[in-house]
């Protein structure tokens, strides 16, 4: 019986809360509907600028750039002549050998008949600058370009006799005509060649001075290398 009384009181309290909430909702709705909104005034009217009068210069660009006649375009196209062709690369120096004592030294000549020069990386021979070398390849710089070649391709083989072509058969066997031997170069007293960074000067292959000759403070000396005998001019007293 006590539980029934408590439940009845809770139901009555809940109903009263619902009734109060409904009254508050109706009061808010009446206040919102009764509120008057003040209208925003319209912005001031600004008239558009008056159009400019039509003149011939206003549409001259359209007439000049018509797609129907290119002759009405005032822009003159000047055709420039093509740039000149770059100069051809000269013949590469001739390779004669190298040694590595404290740094690579390459023995080159501008042509097969030119005197040998001892060239180090960074030095020039003719129009070429030596950049790098190893036992298989050599690298030059010419006109801003890098030129890399095999050492075998720079060796002068003009003194080697050409091999005769194999005959197709016994009946058609013919002997190839022998190439004319190159004219011998006259030997003469030339003396010391270009000086190397090691203190000695190179020998010219066409020099006929005997070994032991002293010229300008240098003595012509013969020495043996793994590739055979060679010569150089050593400073006297060293």
Gross morphology: elongated
Structural class: alpha+beta
Query: How many β-strand stretches?
Result: 11
Summed over residues and divided by their number, the pLDDT gives a mean of 79
Approximate helicity band: 10-25%
Beta percentage is: 15-25%
Query: Measured on Cα atoms, how large is the radius of gyration?
Result: 52 Å
CATH architecture of the domain at 94-154: Roll
Number of H- or I-type helical stretches: 2
Structural commentary:
This protein has helices at 2-34, 60-64; strands spanning 94-100, 104-109, 117-119, 124-125, 128-133, 137-142, 145-150, 201-202, 214-215, 218-225, 228-235. It is of the alpha+beta class. The strands form three sheets. The chain has a four-stranded antiparallel β-sheet, with no helix packed on it. A four-stranded antiparallel β-sheet has the order 8-11-10-9, with no helix packed on it. Strands 1-2-3 form a three-stranded antiparallel β-sheet, with no helix packed on it. Mean pLDDT is 79; it is low at 160-177.
